[in-house]
From TrEMBL:
Signal sequence bounds: none
Location of the protein in the cell: Mitochondrion
Keywords: Mitochondrion, Ribonucleoprotein, Ribosomal protein
Domain of life: Eukaryota
GO CC term (a single one): mitochondrial small ribosomal subunit
Family recorded in the similarity comment: Belongs to the mitochondrion-specific ribosomal protein mS23 family.
GO molecular-function terms, A-Z: structural constituent of ribosome
Protein name per the record: 37S ribosomal protein S25, mitochondrial
Coiled-coil regions listed: none
Amino acid sequence: MGRQIRPARIYQTVSQELNSKILPKYPVYEPPWFQVMRDIPPSEIITRPAIVNTQNSNRKNRKPQGIYKPQQIVHEEDSLRKTFFRDHPWELARPRMILETDGKDYQRCDWSKGVRQYRMPLTGECVVQRQLWLMHNKKHPRAKAYDIARKEFYALRQEEEIEKRVAREEARHVGAYFGKNRLQIAQDLEDKEFEVWKGWASNRAVMIEQARTASYANFGEEATDEVAAEAEAEAAA
């Protein structure tokens, strides 16, 4: 089979389709990638070029390994996120919505005003971006910027917890009823598993005690059998 060059001519094919209107009543819209492919056409070389490795390589290896493997992309925020979520692992358990309207929500954030941003939920990413802004603009060290952003985050999180508690108390005052919260549900599940384990442990203890009692009861019989066997051997001799 020859080389397949039809995917490389997709721009020309779509251009002809847009220019030649087969059905005039039905307009043909250009795809979102059409202008991008016009500005940045695909490579005409079928072979896959080797990636220039700028990282430190081990000279002891005779054969190069992973020359076609993409290099690891490292951002400055990665280490900041790792530090924050290592200190606050339960923040990962909070539900988070990652849906954006137009993909430009980051342009509407002004981290000079603090951790709280307009129409943006309070998450660990707010602490990371606030810390990064303090490091670049205020020239604070990493530890100091982390402490400032972390204290702002704690204060806002405490306000949210107080607001939820007050709203719950007001709702209960007017007759609202709330079911069990997550801690109570988890406690019930833990108690249930503990009762299951306690039953298994008691049965296991009874089995061990029975085996120990049986070994004590058979110990005398085995000794008597051994003495009788020795006496018979002496009599036969």
